Structure formats: C-alpha cells, structure tokens
Amino acid sequence: MAFLEGPSPKQAEIIKQELGEGSGDLERGVRDLRSMCAASPYLPQPEVVDKNILELFIRGCRMDQERARSKFEAFCVARARCRDLYEHRSLSEPPLNDVLQFLDIAPLPKLTDEGLRVTIFRVRANYAESSADIAAAVRAILLVSDARMHDETLISGDVFIWETSNVRASLAARMAAAANSVRRAIHLAHAAYPQRMRRIHVVGAPPLIASSLNFIRSCVNEKIRRRYYLHQKVEDLLEHFPSRVLPAEWGGEEESVEVIAKKWKRRVDELRDYLRDLSELSNLAEKPQFDTDIYGTVGAFRKLDID
C-alpha cells in the first residue's frame, strides 16, 4: 500500500508557482509525451505508460517540454542499454535479497516545509561482508526509485541523506570494483530520471571512505557538488529538517529507518508486475542514435544542466 504523503494545498500552490506550472500545462505536457511515444519505434506505446510517471517528468523538468522529452526518452532507452541495472525486480529474491542487510533504503513519508522528498540511505550496523555488494546495492536503489515513481506526488525536489558511520575499510575496495555500475547509475539519475536534486547530506563519514566520496562527487557537475553537506552526527540534521519528517532514532517523530525500509521492501513486492513491465519499456529491435552516448561516457553527463 502506498504511504507517501503529498503537499498541503498551500504547499502545492507554492510548488506549482516555483515550477512555472500554469493552467492546462500539465495536460498538454502529458499529451506531448504520449505523442512522442506514438511516433517512435523504440519507445513504449502511449497507453502503456502510467500518467503519473509522465507528470513527474514534466514537473521534474520544470515544465520544459524539450527537456522532459529528452529525459523520458533516456529513461526508456536505459532499460535496454543498461539492462544489467534493471534486470532484477525483487528485493525478496536473489541476487538483491541480501542488500537490505547492508543498506537501508527509505524514502520518507512526509515532505519538508519546502515540499522536498527526503530519502535515507543508511549503512547498517554489523552487516555481513557478503551482503556489502555495491553493484547489487545500486540495482536495489534504482528499483526502489522506480517503485517510488509509481507512488510519488507533487514535490519541489529531492534530498538524499547518506548515513555512513558504520562503513568499514573494506568498502572502499568494493566501491572501486563496482565503479562502472556506480558511475552509470549516478549519471542515469541525472540524465534519465525526473529528479531535482536540492541537497545531499552525508553523516558520520569516516576518513577511510574519503576516496569513495571523492569518486562519487567526481561523477556529478559543479552545481551538485556545491550541494553536499557533511555532518558528524545525525542530530545535526535537525538544523536542516523539521523533526516531524525525520525518523525517531534521529530525534524525529517519524517511524524508524528500519521500519520504513521494510515498508518499501513490501511495496516493491506489491508492484512487482508493474516494475517488471517498466524494465521493458524500450524496444530492443529499434535503437535510437544519440549524438553522445550517455550510457557509457562520463563527459556527456557533465554537460547536463542540473536544477
């Protein structure tokens, strides 16, 4: 059952003004994306795509229809060009069933006062080394992101919180081994998802993962790099977020990170057929030709204008 909360009527009005959304703009945008699908041999048929996803792309691109077209096209084609990132659609079966022993993935139910959706990624205490599979964690994050898109409401942007105090020295080597998957996933998040990344908070990062953090930051443009915030402890987050949004163990009023992460695991299971269909959005028989291959090159992503 979906449990993401939307904005209040007042918040919704403010968000729409910020996005530049006027009367009828959203409906026209949806029609335009459906027309693009109908005219393309490699994109899904218009009736196959959930309307909510199309609305997310239009709003995530601040009503810029050309940009929405580009991102939605990349979103669909990524399913074919990066099939290894999307082939597993369950957190309850191998090879992704062990990931949640290592990493909690928890989009939070309530929006901030600014209308932002907060997602927590928490490295769990006492995780088994065998569960710390970075490539599998990347796939799990993309899977939860796809499930969230099914349920998401009107928001003004995203905030990520990485709680890394339980990271071990061995993780740096694992990160290096999975560098290709990590790089592609970060670049797809910018190029192929309707995401407006507003802030990234990293909490409790030990010096031993400095190289991993530097690698991740190298995969994004300067605008995003300026939006990183480092904190020593989770209590510092109360200076940036209202307590009603944050989990109880961090001094907030929401359910625990573990409880919310388990809810998302169940939600992924509930949406299994939908998520499987989503991974087949692009027709492999007809592949589009891009001027720059965003699915294998770093440079193309660095040219993107990220809001």
Count of helix runs: 14
User: How many β-strand runs?
Assistant: 5
Shape: globular
The fourth-level CATH homologous superfamily of the largest domain is CRAL-TRIO lipid binding domain
Question: In sequence order, what are the helices and strands, one letter per element?
Answer: HHHHHHEEHEHHEHHEHHH
Give a structural overview:
- Helix 3 (51-60) packs across helix 4 and helix 7 runs parallel beside helix 9.
- The protein folds into two domains: 16-85; 95-270, Phosphatidylinositol Transfer Protein Sec14p (3-Layer(aba) Sandwich), CATH 3.40.525.
- It has helices at residues 9-19, 25-39, 51-60, 65-81, 83-86, 99-102, 134-151, 170-177, 179-191, 210-218, 222-225, 257-270, 272-278, 298-302; strands spanning 103-107, 116-123, 157-163, 197-203, 228-231.
- The chain has 307 residues and is α/β, with parallel strands linked by helices.
- Strand 1 and strand 2 form a beta hairpin.
